[in-house]
Amino acid sequence: MNQMYDVIILGAGPGGLQVAITLKELAEENNHPLNMLIIESGKQAGTFFTQYPVHGTLISNNKLYTGKAPESRFSERFDWNSLVTKEKKVLMRQFSREFFPKREALVEMLNKLVEEYQLPVMYETEWKGTSKDDQGNFTVQTNQGDFQAKHLVVATGMKPYVPEIPGIENATIYKDMKEKEYYRDKRVLVIGKGNSGMESAQEILNEASMIMIASRSSTRLAYKTHYVGDVRLVNAWLVDNYQLKHQAALLDCEIVNIEKVNEGYNVTVAYNHAMGETEMLYFHEVIAATGFRANCESLKEDLGVKFVMDKYPSIKGNFESTEVEGLYFAGTQTHSLDYRKTFSGFIHGFRYNSKLLSHRLAERLEIPLKQNTVAKEGIVQHILDELTESGDIYLQPGYLYYLLEYSPEGEWKELGHVTALEYKELQAKKGHILLAAYLDYGDINQFSDPLAIPREPGDPTKSVHIHPYICAKTEGGKEWMIELEEHLESQFSDLEPHKKELGEFINSLYQTLDHPVGSVN
User: Fold this and answer.
1) Which residue among 313, 340, 365 closes a domain?
2) What is this structure's pTM?
3) Phi and psi at residue 334, to the nearest 5°
4) 3-state secondary structure at position 303
5) 142 and 113 in a common domain
6) For 48-92, what is each residue's pLDDT tens digit?
7) In-domain check, residue 521
């Protein structure tokens, strides 16, 4: 009889390792046994990053100096690569001093974390299939045998997506790009205007004679949209060269066909903004950098898991499958809940999802979780400090909420973090107040130029920069919310107007209770 694990995690990438580390920390803090296994197909942790990004440079920020200690919660906001650990012994700054590190540094850091936390990783173990029995336990089939678990976390990352375009088999897939010298003095078409496509074009910018980048959608720049999955300026040299007419072009079009001819390819395109015009263009090389999709499609057949946008597994607010109880997802695969809104597709976002998932698993495993209390007279300052220091709510804006509960005993209790979906489902008990604090942006899309946004000081509802939202629930489904004004450096702790507004808001909540309490000082 195979041993029964509490949790099996598929994948030793950053998403899976963050779940494992946080869950192990929670178990050790409470002297609770934990039987956990991590299954990894590669020879080491972080296998995805041994190949991607293809041209070697990450676009996740590694800011070394913030004015506070590297181990501080505040500095965590600007370190987009490190995993979140209690002791902060292993940070990306120990492996790279570059603002945009090389992928090798990330792989080295992840493997150091496995070593430091003595994580139970089984390498070179290929996941073959999954089943679930009548008792709700999972069996994971691998080339090393079968393994059983009460809870299964799938953190197998992403794999390249190749669209169904006639002749796409003639294109070189992003991962198979040749050395840049191969493209010297050639006409090159890159399909895909995301960071992979732009990165590929930029790599050969000074080698190719002409580069065109094509996709159905227009180019979206991250600084305009607040979404880091859009093109970062570090990858946007082609945009500059296109506008300056420097043998580069961005095509908004449908790729109708890719036909092999002589020493190259005739590519037929149908333009989106040219009254239906079609054109045949000749290229020596075609590169398909068309993005990624979740690397767990076998779950469709094995367990009936549904997918969103044919890309991500369908999940609830607690990262559990919408179809299969006890099946969870971590890492990039959690991005279906906030696609193109916040940052669950990237380490600096999904590490907090994984951290939260670990707490949900701990609850299922009956690991007691500590809940700190906050005195009533200190609650305003406590919330403002959290809004100033927390990485969770700063890097998952509008998606992760910091949750507190006021009880009839006259004190506040920290309930940790919840997703926006989880908060929506919560109800306040009689005589209690549920209060959630989060950060979010205003509507940047209402302005034509995001670098020339007019401000209306004194009106928080007109704030466009990231700023605080405070919402609350009391018995009977009653809800309240206020916004607090933005601050240039997002430093809210010492702002007297914020203290006054938040204090008045909380006092108004106290007055809704059956047992009125004294005011906040």
Assistant:
1) 365
2) 0.96
3) -90, 5
4) helix
5) yes
6) 999 999 999 999 999 999 999 999 999 999 999 999 999 999 999
7) no
